[in-house]
Amino acid sequence: MAQSKTCQVLVVGGGPGGYPAAIRAGQLGLDTIIVDKHGLGGTCLNRGCIPSKAFIHASSKYEEMVHHAQKDEMGLKIADPTLDMAGVTAWKDGIVSKLTKGVGQLLKAAKVETIAGWATFQNAKTCVVEMENGETVEITAEHVILATGSKETELPFMPFGGNVIGSTEALELTERPEKLVVVGGGYIGLELGIAFRKMGSEVAVVEALDSILPSYDKELIRPVQMWLKKNKVALHTGCKAKGAVEEGGQTFLEFEDAKGQTQRIEADKILVAVGRKPVTEGWGLENMGVDMDGPFVKIDHQCRTAMRGVYAIGDLVGEPLLAHKATKQGELVAEIIAGHKRAYDPVSVAAVCFTEPELVGVGLTPDEAKAKGETVITGKFPLAASGRALTMEGGADGGFVRVTARESDHVILGIHAVGKHVSELSGEFALALEMGATLEDVAGTIHVHPTLTEGFAEGVLTALGHPIHISA
Ligand code: FAD
Ligand code: NAD
User: Fold this and answer.
1) How far apart are CA 49 and CA 437, in angstroms?
2) pLDDT in tens, 426-451
3) Pocket lining for ligand 1, CB < 6 angstroms
């Protein structure tokens, strides 16, 4: 006989959507239970954002060390750096463990009950959770927040297994693949492909579209393409993966090139990173009376599903599949349940791609703004003219900050940047858009010297026609 519990708020999924929802609900005095089977922190903390950024950081450090071993630059020389892949993975595991334990403590402090297990819904408000010890608990809630997230998409003709891996397995490797072939030149393919290249793997990327990183514009991705070329990453765009072939004890990726010819590349590992899909099966979603929007759960501007008292957030509800969007929706839903007047209506959700160099996109590109009928002015400031960028290794390599504003009232519509460490500018960019800043607002703000943020101020001055550190 299953034990039973009741609560005001039940959160299913402990990722960056679910756990902030539960913490906020607890802070607001709501009796809250959170259920997760695969560890608090979800994809983001356990096998996504944090593990990948740890790999990216370690790989960049190693690359710099190798560079200084080969070349006496900056007056710095180092002898014989070595890479211990198992050590990198263990270091990453330590960070994950620290963060996920921290989430558990935060939930406890907010008086949220955490149950480790898999929830299956019988109806919209009741689920049975199967715990690791085989016991079950039935939970009935007044309000339900669905935050079941997403999982890796497999290609049907080359499922994961053997040398064909997804991002989860790539972030668990304890040996460096000498030859890595990446299928998919999107976020994961390029972030991890570049990290492995920096760690010394030979890397090839096979992308179906005619360009990598299709969500960023051509001007922005050019410095990333330059890095890939300089570092001998073989880029096969307009090419579709066809399958993995084992022959003579070796693995090959077979793909159809842009001319329709079949080609193959040898690989120790083939990393398939062709997108993620929402987790909508295996937990009784069909018993809950919610509507769907394609593969995602349909929600309104308050993250309400078609079923009264059932909310959905994060990757489960569609693009953008980003942790910070999930978190904002989670906090907001908890506040709505507590009776606050809130709606999910951001001006823009900032996106960052942690490639080499990094990319940031907030709001509209000039072309997107024009397509919406706006007449715009733009300002582009090259990081080669930034003192701070020049003090960092590779800091200026083709990078820039580009500001797009409405011509009539100078309201900023979009800010985009490419360059080393520009991810740290995303907060100021997002704030400017959310506050409805004009070019004059940013120009009137004193930006600290020497920092990359001066690049934003100079981008704005360029749009106004009077930059200081480049010729107008
Ligand atoms: P998830 O994080 O997927 O969490 C859902 C949780 O629910 C999981 O733990 C799952 O086990 C649990 N669950 C599902 N169903 C049930 C059930 N029935 N019972 C119990 N538990 C259940 N985003 C960024 O913003 N920045 C990045 O740098 C970034 N890097 C990434 C790198 C990689 C390699 C990957 C794979 C993703 C990355 N993302 C990044 C995307 C980010 O991880 C997701 O957008 C985010 O985790 C979504 O949060 P979520 O709470 O919606 O779902
Ligand atoms: P993605 O959508 O970014 O890229 C997938 C790529 O695979 C696309 O360019 C697509 O054209 C290509 N593709 C699809 N089928 C193919 C085939 N058969 N052969 C060759 N190429 C093919 O997906 P992803 O890289 O798997 O990442 C999933 C999501 O995770 C992202 O959309 C993003 O929301 C999130 N993520 C975010 C970050 C970040 O914020 N820095 C990092 C990693 C992941």
Assistant:
1) 30
2) 999 999 999 999 999 999 999 999 99
3) 12-18, 35-38, 42-44, 48-49, 52, 118-119, 147-150, 167, 188, 279, 283, 314-316, 321-324, 326
